[in-house]
Amino acid sequence: MSAAMIIVADSSDDLGRRAAQAVLESAQRAASPDDMFTMALSGGNTPRVLFNALASSPFRDQMPWDRTQVFFSDERFVPPTSPDSNYHSAEEALLSRVPIPDRFVHRLATVDITPEESASIYEEGLRRVLEAAPSQIPRLDLILLGIGDDGHTASLFPDTQALNETDDLVVPNYVPRLDAWRITFTYPLINAARRVMFLVAGNSKAAVVAEVMAGGEYPASRVRPSDGELLWVLDPEAASRLPERGTTSA
Ligand code: 6PG
Questions:
Q1: Which segments of the chain have a pLDDT < 70?
Q2: Which atom of ligand 1 is nearest to the CA of 73?
Q3: Best mutation site among 152, 163, 177 for ligand 1 pocket (most ligand atoms within 8 Å of CB)
Q4: Which domains occur in the chain, in start order?
Q5: pLDDT score of 1
Q6: From the alpha carbon of 154, which atom of ligand 1 is closest?
Q7: Pairing mode, if any, of strands 5-8 and 229-234?
Q8: What pLDDT does 233 receive?
Q9: In the prediction, which pLDDT does 249 show?
């Protein structure tokens, strides 16, 4: 894996724009009349600045929405109408505001289904859309991730079962500290991506960002695309504990 690239935005608004620029770059590389751009959105609150930027000019008009397939790198096991649902957040802030065909938005099933069934159905769907053979690991063009102050990413939380998964691409994961089920991408799927982008904002993340980048052992530290790019897009607060660097390149 090549070294990670770090972009430090000037402000929260700039964070959304810088992240949207990176998404657009990945999309323009991947989308063509014969090929789709495939990306997975992350959950939580941070992506809202990105979703807003992508749903606004100029990105809304530049993105190839009719050649874009959207997945979710993890999901809370709640109804899609719940404010806690990552799908609900993305639908409200982005997907309902851009001309992406409904059939290209792949929501995880979380109602009248078990977490195990939901994960395996989602993995099957992902393989089908990406036309991956059973023995292949499908390569998404872009996987967006956040990071928790405990170093979790997607729903790969410290000391949980999903951290040890080496075969399945999407698994259920019970998170004791939340007393909740999640569905999450696993490291094999994440690390097969052409680009993984961590989007991080706020002082509360500064310590964990610096520790992960210094080689600390956290779930997020194991995100190392085997043949892809790792990009961190940070606001000044989240980057505040990083060693002084030269200028960052976009
Ligand atoms: C989730 C996420 C999770 C999130 C981090 C950061 O479903 O919660 O996918 O990994 O990215 O917890 O969340 P915030 O952006 O809200 O700080």
A1: 1-2, 245-250
A2: 9
A3: 152
A4: 5-186+202-249 (3.40.50.1360)
A5: 55
A6: 10
A7: parallel
A8: 98
A9: 42
